[in-house]
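Please describe the entry underneath.
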Amino acid sequence: MTKLLLSLLLLCLVSCGTPSPEISSHPQSTPEAALSEKHREDYARRWAAFRCEKNGVPGADIHTLGDDVPKPSWLLSGELQLSLKFGKAYAARRAPERWRTESRYVLRILGGRELGRAESLLTGPHQGMVKVVYCPASGCVLIEESLSGAGNPMRHIVFERDAITSNWTVHYLELPRRQTPFDETVVGHVLSIANGKVYVETDGLYYAFPIGEHLARTLEFMVG
């Protein structure tokens, strides 16, 4: 009995005195994670001049639509309606590997006057994604559209209303993109449009990008 008690006591002392393997609460960093962090820092540094506070972002209504709708249409307010009429794609005249389309977004007074038109990337259902951002305070509309598939293009279109004349202008934008570790680039989350600026959240930081400084150079695009 005495030997048994001594054996148990010795076992307890050995168990208690042997340190258990340390378990780190921080997973080991991978090359991809380190590169991703560098890209985030580079983006934040480059666009720091356009930073804004979250509470400075104007409120907006966001509308999305599935890619299976044959005749997309959005009622943005009591009087504004946006629709998309699909058309054919055709090769650009000077660059056959690039494309344009006959598809058009049409903004109009509900049941009445047309306010503006803009070219779309999409030529039919099941091709991609459309998000519409409408700011009631400014009355401006932003469209974010993209073709499905890795490496395919994304476009941002703005219908801007002049606060004084109430005239409408269409702009095509190239918003800042952040590099990823996988040789792709991404645009942040578009939140609103007002005061001649597009408000974007990227990696938890908020930016107000002036429309006039981010105009697209061409409407031609490549697929794949």
Residues 1-6, 8-27 have pLDDT under 50 and may be disordered. Residues 2-17 form the longest helix (16 residues).
